[in-house]
Specification:
The structure holds three protein chains of three kinds.
Chain A lengths: L2 H4 L12 E7 L3 H14 L4 E4 L15 E2 L6 H21 L6 E2 L2 E5 L2 H16 L4 E4 L1 H7 L15 E5 L3 E2 L2 H14 L3 E3 L4 E7 L2 E7 L2 E10 L5 H7 L6 E13 L7 E4 L4 E5 L4 E6 L13 H14 L8 E12 L5 E4 L5 E5 L9 H14 L12 H4 L14
Parallel strand pairs in A: 1-2, 1-12, 2-9, 5-14, 12-19
Antiparallel strand pairs in A: 3-8, 4-8, 5-7, 6-7, 10-11, 11-12, 13-16, 13-17, 14-15, 15-16, 18-19
Helix pairs in contact in A: 2-6, 2-9, 3-9
Chain B lengths: L1 E4 L2 E4 L6 H7 L20 E4 L2 E5 L10 E3 L28 E11 L3 H12 L4 E4 L5 E7 L3 E6 L4 E11 L3 E3 L12 E3 H9 L7 E5 L3 E7 L2 E7 L4 E3 L2 E5 L3 E3 L2 H4 L6 E3 L17 E3 L4 E2 H9 L5 H8 L12 H12 L17 H4 L14 H6 L3 E5 L2 E6 L3 H10 L2 E4 L4 E6 L3 H8 L12 E7 L5 E9 L8 E6 L4 H15 L4 E4 L4 E7 L3 H7 L11 E6 L2 E8 L6 E7 L3 H11 L6 E2 L2 H11 L33 H8 L6 E7 L9 E4 L2 E12 L4 E8 L7 E4 L2 E6 L9 H4 L1
Parallel strand pairs in B: 1-5, 6-7, 6-10, 10-19, 12-17, 13-17, 24-34
Antiparallel strand pairs in B: 1-2, 3-4, 3-5, 8-9, 9-10, 11-18, 14-15, 15-16, 20-21, 22-23, 24-30, 25-28, 25-29, 26-27, 27-28, 30-33, 31-32, 32-33, 35-38, 35-40, 36-37, 37-38, 39-40
Helix pairs in contact in B: 10-15
Chain C lengths: L4 E2 L2 E5 L2 H8 L9 E6 L2 E5 L12 E5 L2 E7 H7 L13 E6 L2 E7 L3 E7 L3 H8 L1
Antiparallel strand pairs in C: 1-6, 2-4, 2-5, 3-4, 6-9, 7-8, 8-9
The chains are: A alpha+beta, B alpha+beta, C alpha+beta.
The complex binds flavin-adenine dinucleotide and FE2/S2 (inorganic) cluster.
């Protein structure tokens, strides 16, 4: 059964020390990937990743695993495209099976304004070297025979963009692949340890207070997902980030049959079939901001109906489980990476409902920033200072399918 | 009476569940594994009438019912579409929902459930009891609390309760040892049910779970059992009893709500069984004790990590059968009591169709002229929540009708609002960046609506009414897509400022027809509007006998008159205009033509040409902002950013040849500097006109789009002096 | 189901106290029906004119709505589409019915079901 765990995965745990060169708060994908790239690309291994619960317990172990680069602004397309490339080689690089599968992603439009958005996406993606093609209904039917082109008579499909590199990977195996790669090289991962405050020397952050005692650090990175406002507050920082719940659900496992990832701008929902044959289904985040992780039946009702409009065959599938994550949604729907203006504290946040795909590139770039003390070009547009300069990386239209 | 299992008929007895019928035929609903016949495990799941993962022990046998066993290896097949009525929404074919309210919902009709129900009734509370025996399959308990139930006939029941008591009792333990996936293994409770219905289990051995060493079998069926002391007993069926139980607490664990309580065994402390040493722990995901050991040895030593790495507990029964054994394993290995993992809905699985039952998405609005458009051959499209004509065949014909003759556009979807009150001028001065107090009665002014960040969120007109009795009154208009947001936005601000202003949204009461083109005045004269208002004036007058509020403006670039009128008179007004203008060549235009027409004038469409961060400066609309006004929404932000270096601007562009696709990148020196937001190859101007963003400085005068040069110019591209609009 | 009828009436936005006074005219018999949508907002049917003691009151003919006069049995047939508690007889209730914003007034022998004219087709599709 567990052929996937067998492939090289082995987590090695360490006793905590009282001081590290780098302390990373949050054992999600972004925190662990940063630790991994610090160790592998920069030889920096005196690093601790501090995780309040268990690794991957946040959104990195709760997402719908969609990996894509078909964004709406060049800065994002380039960043995510790099991440898509890193994902493609992650299995070879780490020796861990992350169950990466390239399926392509159909993004359907049901109105003229929807078509306009998809045409525009196709243009810009290709200009930035990302393969996304405009497809007509006949081609959609060929790519995914189950699609109801009439949309249940209500959401007729006018066309779609087809993002060729669209992929999925098993979320917690990505977390473990980075964790094990980092741990093998001497990075300490401390589970069940919450950061409760920041150690300060004047204005400078010099370590963290934790539920298991103080730990000093040359530099602290916050990678805590939906809890970011609390950590930032310890440094006197206010971020343009709000926390919103995002729900998803999965069906039982069926024989493979749904080829590509299918999503719809109008209905704001999407589905992919996992390696276990489950349909993994999600939609937009909850409008009310909250820290709640309670699942609602209202979500299940409306998301189910949306899926039934697009892919009528799903109606007879049994829902196995639904769950909720807490997403750090930034004011411009793009991530925030880099220096904070507070010395000794760097941040990666604003990953919202779209940050799983950004884990490799986000980790790699943040590792470079920490190792060199300079912001790499690829993530310079995503600096926190963009908000004060009124240069947001606004791209709300691209977050629809996670 | 027969059901059909894997194409083979099987006889059943009155009252049999499908599982009982199958066992009666000495078969197994799957390929092996202990059966509880109580809904706690996943070992009886099969495909029933096309729905896989259906618990056969909870499904009553009925004549002709078709059962397909899940394959022994791999997953059940995905079936192509269930029949769809192509015109009905999918919820029309799903089951329906019954709704109830109760003071107290008690789930479970056992001892503790009955006690809880009578205690609540004694307090005079309305109680609803939900129980499997009564045909209720409780799917989940959600915040509210809201209890979701599937009924025996396939309908759904949603119960809103004040309190929920979960009295679901405890489940029997499944054996975990070598051979536990053979056919012919039953819990004590299952055996009791079977004997009550007269099923012959053949030679039976009964063993306590704690005494069980292994189960022997051949051809997949039990042949004997070996107990801890090494004795081997031959048997055809094995009944496993246990002094341990497992609380059925999934429903209680899936919601944290002070109004949801577990009662009786479902909430009681219980003792874990012995740590399993061999066999399959999780039958749903086929996870063995060896698998657990392996992930443990690899450092996955947290219950959640073990679950995720081994998949133990992630199958159909959601841990119902395996959780006690998994916890026993982790507790034994770690020396610390392992808590159960988070409970997540759904408890008894429902189909996507059942979840969607009687659900509806946002409705789409129709204007009063919907049927007129259809009759005129319009292709309707949804825009901003409304059905609107996209075109009536050929949008270029419509374009020419506006430019050369006269045309009608249905603009009923525009937001319209009446505001009045002693503080109305003050309120509008604070809402809009333009000056309001100097708008004379009978005149109107184009306005932007900004948010606190100084970013454009909508635009429209402010019309000052001629005062009848000294009270001030304005009519405001908004874009179709922005109307409902703008209404809430304006009400919220007025309320938070505490200003004395009345607001009435007229969007749905009034339709609007835009009469536009050089012959528009002529057409209006013919239907009784002898003195059409001049540019940026507005009047109240009868047109074709219909009382109208006539706004003279111009979005198309030609003289335009918006006739706002009672919705109930729309068809009559439309038909009168069409008839009176037939010799003028009047014809309707849709959105596609409108977008092209306004582009020639360089008018932006909010949300299409603008972005989330579009300040007036970025749109070259500083003229519509009076920063010297003391106060308006967005002023602080605009003052702050006025001094910042700005690298974003919307430009007009022209080029020869066909129009690039909207969204096409704009290149300067081999770099993408922005994209085209609107484009149109104008047959009137003989060239392509565009709007698009440059987001790099210095801004370029010529750019490359589609490998062709384009010239940056200032719109309007058409009738720059506005002579035609004012004509 | 039959097509709905237009709801003919006046829409009045005025100070709550002024609306209260209209709702209960002292002594005089009331010839109209007031559906109070909000404290400062009401639909009045059964009269073409109305005097409101608020110089800034907005009184306009209302055209936005249509209505069905349902028999109690007809209403019972659609009750399952209503998730919210039904209003007391004579009181205006507002909420989603089959996902469409609507209003109901329950009388002893009939029920008024009121919806925006722009959504009437959708509601009919969903209910019947
Ligand atoms: C339902 C759902 C579906 C999604 N689908 C997709 C998708 O398809 N594609 C995609 O790209 N993205 C998706 N996302 C978004 C994606 O999951 C996240 O953006 C991404 O996982 C963020 O990773 P992270 O490492 O920043 O945060 P997380 O994974 O949330 O990790 C943060 C960690 O910090 C820990 N922590 C918090 N506070 C403290 C503290 N004080 N001390 C110590 N530790 C702390 C938490 O326990 C947690 O483990 C989805 C999200 C959800 C919820
Ligand atoms: S036998 Fe049906 S659930 Fe256990």
């Amino acid at each position: 059964m567990n052929e996937f765990v067998e492939t090289l995965l082995e987590l090695t745990w360490h006793e905590p020390k009282s001081s590290y060169d780098v302390v990373i708060i949050g054992g999600g994908g972004h925190g662990l990937a940063t630790a991994y790239y610090l160790a592998t690309r920069h030889g920096i291994t005196n690093v601790a990743v501090i995780e309040a619960d268990y690794i991957g317990s946040g959104n990195s172990g709760r997402n719908t695993t969609i990996i894509r680069a078909n964004y709406g602004i060049p800065e994002s397309i380039r960043f995510y495209n790099h991440s898509v490339d890193l994902y493609r080689n992650l299995e070879a690089e780490t020796g861990c099976r992350i169950m990466h599968a390239n399926k392509g992603l159909i993004w359907m439009a049901h109105t003229e304004s929807g078509m306009r958005a998809e045409r525009s996406r196709v243009q810009l993606n290709n200009a930035c070297g990302v393969e996304t093609v405009l497809v007509d209904p006949i081609e959609i039917k060929r790519l995914c025979p189950q699609v109801d082109l009439t949309g249940g008579g209500r959401y007729p499909v006018l066309g779609a963009s087809f993002h060729v590199p669209g992929s999925t990977a098993r979320h917690d195996r990505v977390v473990w692949a980075y964790a094990q790669g980092a741990m093998h090289r001497g990075v300490h991962v401390l589970q069940g340890t919450s950061v409760t405050g920041l150690l300060r020397d004047g204005d400078r952050v010099v370590g963290v207070k934790t539920s298991r005692g103080d730990i000093s650090a040359g530099i602290v990175m916050s990678a805590v997902g939906g809890d970011v406002s609390t950590i930032a507050a310890h440094a006197g920082l206010r971020l343009p980030v709000r926390t919103h719940p995002l729900q998803a659900f999965v069906t039982n496992g069926y024989a493979q049959g749904l080829g590509p990832i299918v999503s719809s701008t109008d209905l704001l929902c999407y589905v992919s079939q996992t390696a276990r044959g489950q349909m993994l289904i999600g939609h937009e985040f909850e409008r009310e901001s909250s820290y709640s992780r309670q699942s609602s039946f209202q979500f299940l009702q409306s998301c189910s109906l949306k899926m039934a409009y697009l892919l009528p065959f799903v109606r007879n599938l049994k829902i196995l489980r639904q769950w909720t994550g807490r997403c750090d949604i930034s004011a411009d729907f793009s991530p925030i990476m880099g220096f904070t203006g507070v010395e000794g504290l760097v941040i990666t946040t604003g990953w919202g409902t779209w940050g799983f795909k950004g884990i490799p590139a986000g980790g790699e770039q943040m590792a470079e920033l920490i190792a060199t003390g300079r912001t790499p070009d690829l993530i310079a547009p995503f600096a926190l200072s963009r908000f004060a300069a009124d240069h947001p990386m606004a791209d709300q239209g691209s977050t629809g399918t996670r | 009476m027969r059901i059909v299992v894997d194409e083979q008929p099987i006889e059943y007895a009155e009252g049999d569940s499908v599982a009982v019928a199958i066992v009666r035929a000495d078969q197994h609903p799957q390929h092996g594994g202990a059966l509880c016949l109580a809904g706690d495990c996943g070992n009886c799941c099969a495909e029933i009438d096309g729905v896989a993962f259906t618990r056969t022990c909870l499904t009553a046998a009925r004549p002709g019912l078709r059962v397909n066993r899940h394959p022994a290896v791999g997953a059940p097949p995905l079936h192509p579409d269930p029949p769809v009525n192509p015109v009905a929404s999918p919820n029309h074919v799903a089951s329906t929902v019954q709704r109830e309210r109760a003071d107290v919902v008690v789930i479970g009709a056992g001892e503790s459930g009955t006690a809880a129900a009578s205690a609540a009734r004694a307090e005079g509370r309305a109680v609803t009891v939900l129980a499997g025996e009564l045909g209720h399959d409780v799917v989940g308990v959600y915040p509210g609390p809201l209890v979701i139930v599937r009924l025996a006939d396939g309908d759904m029941l949603h119960v809103h309760a004040h309190d929920v008591v979960i009295a679901t009792g405890a489940a029997e333990l499944h054996p975990v040892c070598d051979g536990n996936m053979l056919r012919g293994i039953f819990t004590a409770g299952a055996a009791e049910k079977l004997s009550a219905t007269g099923v012959d289990l053949g030679m039976v051995a009964t063993v306590e779970l704690e005494q069980l060493r292994s189960i022997e079998g051949s051809d997949g069926h039990v042949t004997g059992v070996v107990t801890a002391d090494g004795t081997s007993t031959p048997c055809h069926s094995l009944i496993v009893t246990s002094r341990h139980t497992s609380p059925r607490d999934l429903l209680a664990r899936m919601v944290s709500d002070p109004h949801v309580h577990a009662a009786g065994a479902a909430g009681a402390h219980f003792e874990l069984p012995p740590c399993p040493t061999t066999g399959v722990v999780c039958a749903c995901s086929k996870v063995t004790v060896d698998d657990l050991q392996m992930v443990w040895d690899k450092g996955f030593q947290h219950l959640e990590l073990i679950k995720r790495a081994s998949l133990c507990g992630t199958g159909t029964c959601q841990g119902g059968a395996c959780m006690p054994h998994l916890r026993a394993f982790v507790t034994a290995k770690s020396g610390q009591a392992a808590a159960p993992f988070t409970g997540r809905p759904a408890s008894r699985q429902l189909t996507i169709g059942e979840a969607a039952a009687d659900m509806h998405l946002d409705p789409f609005r129709r204007t009063a002229l919907h049927d007129e458009h259809i009759a005129l051959g319009a292709r309707m499209d949804r825009f901003g929540g409304w059905w609107r004509p996209w075109n009536y065949g050929d949008y270029l014909d419509e374009y020419w009708a506006v430019r050369e003759g006269v045309s009608l556009g249905d603009v009923s979807t525009l937001g319209k609002m009446i505001v009045s009150g002693p503080d109305v001028v003050e309120a509008l001065e604070r809402i809009y960046p333009t000056t309001i107090h100097d708008i004379r009665p009978g005149r109107s002014r184009y306005v932007l609506l900004l948010n606190e960040r100084g970013h454009l969120i909508d635009d429209g007109m402010v019309c000052r009414e001629t005062s009848v009795d000294g009270t001030d009154r304005f009519v405001l208009t908004f874009t179709s897509g922005g109307a409902s947001f703008a209404e809430a936005w304006i009400r919220d601000w007025i309320e938070s400022w505490g200003l004395d202003v009345h607001v009435l949204d007229r969007t749905l009461a009034l339709s609007a027809i835009n009469v536009t083109g050089p012959l528009a005045s002529e057409l209006l004269r013919r239907v009784g509007l002898d003195e059409p208002p001049r540019f940026l004036q507005h009047v109240h007058a009868d047109v074709a006998g219909v009382p109208c509020h006539v706004l003279r403006l111009s979005f198309t670039g030609e003289a335009s008159f918006e006739l706002h009128h009672p919705r109930i008179h729309s068809v009559e007004l439309w038909q009168a205009l069409m008839a009176a203008g037939s010799d003028l060549g009047v014809r309707p235009h849709g959105l596609q033509a409108l977008f092209a027409l306004r582009l020639e004038k360089g008018h932006v469409i909010v949300g299409m040409d603008t972005e989330m961060d579009s300040t007036p400066r970025r749109l070259n609309m500083d003229w519509a902002v009076k920063l010297d006004k003391p106060n308006f929404i967005g002023r602080t932000a605009l003052l702050r950013t006025a001094d910042l270096d700005d690298r974003r601007r919307l430009f007009g562009m022209t080029m020869d040849g066909p129009a690039p696709v909207e969204g096409a990148p704009i290149w300067v020196d081999g770099q993408i500097v922005g994209h085209v937001t609107s484009s149109f190859h104008s047959p009137g101007l003989g060239k392509t006109v565009m709007l698009g963003w440059q987001k790099h400085t210095p801004f370029a005068d010529t750019v490359t789009i589609d490998d062709r040069p384009a010239l940056v110019t200032h719109p309007p591209f058409y009738d720059a002096e506005g002579a035609r609009a004012r004509a | 189901m039959r097509a709905p009828d237009a709801l003919i009436g006046l829409r009045v936005v005025a100070k709550p106290a002024a609306l209260d006074a209209v709702a209960a005219p002292d002594g005089r018999p009331k010839t109209w029906t007031m559906l109070r949508i909000a404290p400062d907002d009401a639909i009045v049917t059964g009269t073409a004119t109305l005097t409101v003691d608020d110089p800034f009151a907005i009184v306009e003919p209302e055209y936005a709505f249509v209505h069905w006069r349902l028999t109690t049995a007809e209403f019972d047939g659609i009750k399952r589409h209503i998730e919210w508690p039904l209003p007391a007889p004579g009181v205006l209730g507002q909420g989603l019915i089959a996902g469409v914003a609507a209003k109901v007034v329950i009388a002893s022998d009939h029920v008024l079901l009121i919806v925006s004219a722009s959504l009437a087709d959708e509601l009919m599709d969903r209910l019947w």
